[in-house]
Amino acid sequence: MHTDFVYLDEAVPGLLWDAKYATGDNFTGAPVDGYFANRVVGTKELARALQKALELAKAQGYTLLVWDAYRPARAVRRFLRWAGETEDYRTKDAHYPNIQKTDIVPLGYVATESSHSRGSAVDLTLADARTHNPIGMGGIFDLMDEASHHSAKQPEEIRENRARLKDIMTQCGFAPYENEWWHYRLRNEPYPDTYFDFPIE
Fold it and tell me: Can you give the pTM of this predicted structure?
């Protein structure tokens, strides 16, 4: 692993994680290239910012649950190959019910080069600090649909939950991504032009 990267589950005590791309529970339906362990990794700068965000969340009765952070470039290439493969419908209902598989890249749900591969982006949600159950956000992680957009019409509770996460993250130096309520990127990335490809082991 690069010397400026850390395991977030070690560097941020109390952080919850479930590395979806190390399992079959993701939009490809299988573990993704470069993910050999259910761990979450990021730059040291990302870890420090997440520690601050976790403290803010805990002050409100929540904790943070991370699904992905650093993403090997080979995983992004796998996403792109998958998007071009014949539709098998295994994950369509759960992850992209209202669009075609071929539209996933053009609509911006999968990038040809991901900020995750620079080590300073994170996919996460809020969870109850006591039960560790994720709170309602109006859709699952990687739901590629307009319902996942920050501007989507949602019930008041969902809007408030998303706004709470957004407020916490932006206070700690993160910028949101309009199409995905769960995706945040450090505004001041330490490696803004570098796409890493070391595996998560």
Answer: 0.95
